[in-house]
Hints:
Blueprint: E1 4-6, E2 9-11, E3 15-16, E4 21-24, E5 27-30, E6 36-44, E7 53-54, H1 56-64, H2 68-76, E8 85-88, E9 97-105, E10 110-111, E11 116-117, H3 118-136, E12 141-144, H4 150-161, E13 178-181, H5 186-210, H6 218-229, E14 235-240, H7 242-247, H8 251-257, E15 265-272, E16 281-285, E17 287-291, H9 311-325, E18 331-341, E19 352-355, E20 361-364, H10 371-385, E21 390-395, H11 399-405, E22 410-414, H12 417-430, E23 434-436, H13 441-448, E24 455-456, H14 466-475, E25 483-487, E26 493-494, E27 504-505, H15 510-521
Parallel strand pairs: 3-13, 6-9, 6-12, 12-13, 16-18, 16-21, 17-18, 20-24, 21-25, 22-23
Antiparallel strand pairs: 1-2, 4-5, 6-7, 8-9, 10-11, 14-15, 15-18, 19-20, 22-25, 26-27
Helix pairs in contact: 3-4, 4-5, 5-9, 8-10, 9-15, 12-15, 13-14
Amino acid sequence: MATSMSKFGRLYWGGFCAAKHTFHNNKATFCSSAKKGLIVGVYEKDNQEEGFELTSVGAQFDQSSQGKLAQLLNIAGPTVKKGKTKLLYGVHEDYNSVAVVGLGKATAGYDEYEEVDTKKENIRAAVAAGVKQLREAGVKDVDVDPCSDAEAAAEGATLALYSYDELKEQKKRKKLVNLSVHGGNGSDEESWQRGLTLGNCQNFARTLMEMPANYLTPTKFAEMTGQKLQPLQNVTVTAHTKHWATQNKMEAFLSVAKGSDQLPVFLEIKYSGGESGNEPLVLVGKGVTFDSGGISIKPASNMDLMRGDMGGAANVASAMVAIATLKLPINVIGLIPLCENLINGQANKPGDVVRAMNGKTIQIDNTDAEGRLILADALCYACAKLQPRAVVDLATLTGAVDVALGSGATGMFTTSTNLWQNMQKAGIRTGDRVWRMPLYEHYTKQINESQLADLNNIGKHGRSAGACTAAAFLKEFVTCKDWAHMDIAGVMENKDEIPYLGKGMSGRPMRTLVEFVAGMASKQ
Length: 524
């Protein structure tokens, strides 16, 4: 299926290459095509010798080329290091170029110290390197060796080809590439399609996070999300207004929104994939479409990155698209409070007191700690109105978690060991890890001591354990038993840490969130 374009960015939808090859007696017959490229994976030798071992699909292709692939690769230097590529020409009449990518050891798998499935990560990184090199070579149609894991291969290819360049003139944009899986079987086709869905939904999150704040207002976010979900089954989307939030006594949320001329929106997405009587899993995403810090204004340097302060909302919106597309057998509700944190005559002032939906009063000593204010009302609504099975919130909440973990993992605070174990397992599979952080009473005491109100929106010891005191603050608005808070500030953007993402907003940890939901669906 050809690449599709939309206003959500450059999304690389592909398909199973059924029209491009057939199998007879387990032998592949290839039809000719112009300006096509192929990615073939190779493993390293186990004993540190020079040489390579082709994947099963690669071996079939080598046979169809009368051994020319292996011959040219040996001439070029037979060892292809993990994550690296070698571009070969004249291998086969159907492909003007073949990118041979290094998959590392064939024996790679779960690494208990890295807490990741290294085989899957190797495939993502290798295929990503291959598609980028072929695009640079001018190739527009790329067939991809599934490399024993078509889902991981599709993710690596799709995520690597993404770029947000819709606002640039045409000649400065990255070239479009059509992706197809090469060889394999019916199982590979299904896995490939799942990988494309996950990769493209993460790319949707990246687009939302990259869009300039004057383009992506709270209303525009709601419109784009609604349009993305509209074709999918069992989904209803409701964009609640400021009047609705006022009726529900969401004063904490509205106190942040009133500093901007843009109207707030409380987006509620309901997916009914499970039985009607089953309690829903609720996902909550912080949706501050631009965060200036308010009167406690941020430094000017890098403030432009605060267009991505709605990363939690982007993750929830894109996860809901993926969940509905994959038709997971579970009921899920996504809650996304959307607003801007700016400065006008009505903006919050340090020392102001607001009342949350549950009646607790909050002293606002730092207007830049606004994310927890809008989440407070969303969490109250989730627990009081939706009778959830569990609640998981995601937010680019604190710089403190970036100091603690950097981009290596999402910080997770939770009241449930079961939620933690399921999320950790999901992160191992996706390569987008989580790390459990403490939620001690020690931190709760630091936000419970307020001169004017029940709670303070910052810990009494200032920056000390800022991620932990922020999580402790949120816990004050949670009444359901199973709750998790994911502070994603450290993984908001990618510099060069994840080779298959490239530089820019990351959309992390969207795939981990969907994998977690899929795991919860299987345990109902």
